[in-house]
Design a protein that fits this description.
Blueprint lengths: L7 H11 L9 E2 L2 E2 L6 H4 L1 H13 L7 H12 L2 H8 L4 H16 L6
Helix pairs in contact: 3-6
Length: 112
């Protein structure tokens, strides 16, 4: 990875010295993005998709309230924990994650 201010000639020379084929742009390492651009929301959008996919996979009609609570705490709230230990997530992204989990919690509460 190079700074945007690095000249192309310097980039080419460094890649040749280190025997590097291509730069890491938009790639992940250990499940985290290698570089975070100006739009943090777009960079960490994969967290929302991952949580939404997990929530949609749970058949809520078959779960009690306690079962839903355990799934939320053990899975949905633990997914962003590793990312949050390395990066500061935006408040809006955290709010959207909370809203998504709240919608799952309050949906189909046996008409109560």
């Amino acid at each position: 990875m190079f700074s945007p201010n690095t000249n192309q000639s310097v980039r080419t020379e460094m890649k040749a010295c280190l025997s590097i084929d291509h730069e890491a742009k938009g790639e992940n390492y250990l499940g985290l993005p290698v570089s975070v651009g100006k739009t943090r929301k777009r960079t960490f959008e994969y967290i929302m998709k991952k949580i939404w996919g997990r929530i949609q996979g749970w058949q809520e009609k078959l779960l009690s309230k306690a079962g839903k609570e355990i799934l939320i705490k053990a899975v949905a709230q633990s997914i962003p924990t590793y990312v949050m230990s390395c990066f500061d997530l935006t408040k809006s992204l955290c709010d959207e994650l909370s809203m998504m989990i709240a919608k799952y919690w309050w949906s189909q509460q046996d008409k109560k």
